[in-house]
Amino acid sequence: MKQLIVDLDDRSYPIYIGEGILDQISTFFRKHQINDQSPLMIITDDNIAPLYLKKVIVSLQESGYKVCEYIVPAGESSKSLSVLEKITGVALDAGLDRKSSIVALGGGVVGDLAGFVAASFMRGIPFIQIPTTILAHDSSVGGKVAVNHPKAKNIIGAFHQPQMVLYDTSTLRTLPEREIKAGLSELIKHGLIWDAKFAEWNQLNAEKLLALDSESLEYALYNGCKIKAHVVSEDERENGLRAILNFGHTIGHALEAVSQYNKLLHGEAIAIGMVGAAKLSVHLGYPQRIYKETKSVMKKYGLPIQIPNHLNVDEIMEAMLHDKKFSEGQVVFTILKDIGEAHIQRGISIDLIREIVENLRLEE
Amino acid sequence: MKQLIVDLDDRSYPIYIGEGILDQISTFFRKHQINDQSPLMIITDDNIAPLYLKKVIVSLQESGYKVCEYIVPAGESSKSLSVLEKITGVALDAGLDRKSSIVALGGGVVGDLAGFVAASFMRGIPFIQIPTTILAHDSSVGGKVAVNHPKAKNIIGAFHQPQMVLYDTSTLRTLPEREIKAGLSELIKHGLIWDAKFAEWNQLNAEKLLALDSESLEYALYNGCKIKAHVVSEDERENGLRAILNFGHTIGHALEAVSQYNKLLHGEAIAIGMVGAAKLSVHLGYPQRIYKETKSVMKKYGLPIQIPNHLNVDEIMEAMLHDKKFSEGQVVFTILKDIGEAHIQRGISIDLIREIVENLRLEE
Ligand SMILES: NC(=O)c1ccc[n+]([C@@H]2O[C@H](COP(=O)([O-])OP(=O)(O)OC[C@H]3O[C@@H](n4cnc5c(N)ncnc54)[C@H](O)[C@@H]3O)[C@@H](O)[C@H]2O)c1
Ligand SMILES: NC(=O)c1ccc[n+]([C@@H]2O[C@H](COP(=O)([O-])OP(=O)(O)OC[C@H]3O[C@@H](n4cnc5c(N)ncnc54)[C@H](O)[C@@H]3O)[C@@H](O)[C@H]2O)c1
Ligand SMILES: [Zn+2]
Ligand SMILES: [Zn+2]
């Protein structure tokens, strides 16, 4: 088992990563003095509940915790205010109070939703992340929690750091293959923006990671979390450095938006987005290898690198220009100066971006 | 004009109190460098809009601000997630971004709602309070913002401090008389819990305050805000001292709940609650004058001191025991050790509270 600390003054918290953590959930709760006088609420989704919920509940109950649960339908549409309102009602009925904790058992959807429930219930109660997807190595670190508005993703939310993250790699074995690949996309991103050595390791270990080899997973998730944690520590409220985490996301979000959040997975969309941003880096004069290696690593992991033909370029551009990241109308893009070295580039022309997007339809 | 600072490290902010501030809104915005590149949104209600909205909009527009507005129906029921979702949609359409500010023009309802919109929109943007009720001297200081859940008041919210509070006492002249009295109830509370001199001043100046004499209002609101600000500075997140602000609120909230939020105003309910808490103080051995003076000041301001006969004691007790303040099942009560000196008393027996409540029905 590996452990690291997200360093945020009095909001610092540990991440534990390893096989079999789910069997010892209550040990971690006790170790970190999670209150056992007030009831806890576990929030999860209906794919994860039949697999892991019972194990978590039994472990906690045997240790003397009072536990209630809320199971949402799997999928992005559960990240809504109306689901939050229902959960809040059940929490009130179950007697949760200001000393209760919310436990998120699941992927990024459950983590973001449960995190915002915890942030807003009685103006903020503790919460604990138990991630069950690879992508959640990203979403469970950094304290960004949110629900969606019909008009925009993640637009209603908060910064709310968890008490701890308990990451059991054995839960990843039940993930659908497509979700595994999409999650690895975000892991690859962390190497590309910050750590050339880890980026190279990712190039060399695609097979092992895709096979969910336990030791490789632990190593890779540890590094991914560490990079994310480091960036977040330096910039908790997203005023500067944190923007490098958006590598691949400007184009990626637009692709998600125009494919109406159901055709491309987030990790797939940003894989294409990273290839685009890498190409933009080269356009701006940075080394050719940025583009070559970004593209090759995506291929090794079976991730898409081409914008699907049925998506319309005008609509993609339109979606991009509505993105909240274009603060005050400035076009800002996260690019790479080299593998392992991200950079925030301002004042990029819309025409150049359009050219990149058009090229991405021909990529292969 | 009077000015004071709420001292909260990097979240400190000024409160300006005086006649005619509304005519110079944009001056204050400029002075405090409110961003003029991104659009602002003013949130208000349909009683206040016809009286003051235009003045505020014109002042801001003439100074070069881009302004949009959202008018909610007056009343507690606008403090809901569904209204928040609608406002968020309009904010997105109007192009608000992370540098935009939300402006709350109104009483506590508008302030709490707009504050939570600001806290949650894009995970938090600046907001500015322009209070227009007397009660808002309380609600606009301290950063507690929230909406209601059908099952509980103020249960979904955040701590989000404003950039500044611009309090124009001339707006109070259009307040219905009942709202004036109810607002003064909270002002009286601030004297009773913290400042014997101010408490005495309130005893002596009921007539002037009820007539909204400009100088008296400025003095009283300044003192009320100062006491609230002081308590909040010492305990931003309500871990300790802040509980003294609940004087009169334990019984008061229960009365509001059983009268279904529409028969008794908040200020009226806590006036009765303060008389009850003062009586409890005497029961616990503190000076008789606590009860005498609390009761007499309420009478001078025309505030109720008796629980209306049609309210059922069992239901009141039930509502009180469901209050979120009874953390972990402990019965905690804010009482007075003397006029101007509040105290948090733990471990009070439910039977004693019931006796107090029963007596409050006979009060006159
Ligand atoms: N907060 C952040 O910083 C941040 C960062 C990135 C992404 N996100 C958010 O994360 C979300 C995407 O996260 P995700 O990819 O984990 O999606 P997800 O939570 O929807 O999980 C993907 C699918 O896998 C299923 N699943 C989860 N764990 C499983 C397991 N162990 N076995 C079998 N099935 C399992 C889920 O039920 C779901 O159907 C998006 O809403 C995105 O906005 C947030
Ligand atoms: N955040 C806090 O710390 C805090 C503290 C106390 C109360 N509150 C909240 O404040 C709310 C009550 O505030 P309130 O008493 O100001 O209620 P309110 O905002 O509903 O205002 C009372 C009534 O007066 C009208 N009104 C407001 N200003 C007016 C004016 N200048 N002229 C004419 N009419 C005017 C309103 O339209 C409304 O009908 C409650 O929701 C309560 O939960 C919050
Ligand atoms: Zn992402
Ligand atoms: Zn009050």
From TrEMBL, chains A, B:
The lineage of its organism: Bacteria, Bacillati, Bacillota, Bacilli, Bacillales. GO terms for molecular function: 3-dehydroquinate synthase activity; metal ion binding; nucleotide binding. It catalyses: 7-phospho-2-dehydro-3-deoxy-D-arabino-heptonate = 3-dehydroquinate + phosphate. Its EC number is 4.2.3.4. The keyword Hydrolase does not apply. NAD(+) binds at G108, V109, V110, G111, D112, T132, T133, K144, K153, T171, L172, R173, T174. Zn(2+) binds at E186, H249, H266. This is 3-dehydroquinate synthase. Residues 70-181 form the 3-dehydroquinate synthase N-terminal domain. It comes from Chengkuizengella marina. The gene is aroB. Its cofactor is Co(2+); Zn(2+); NAD(+).
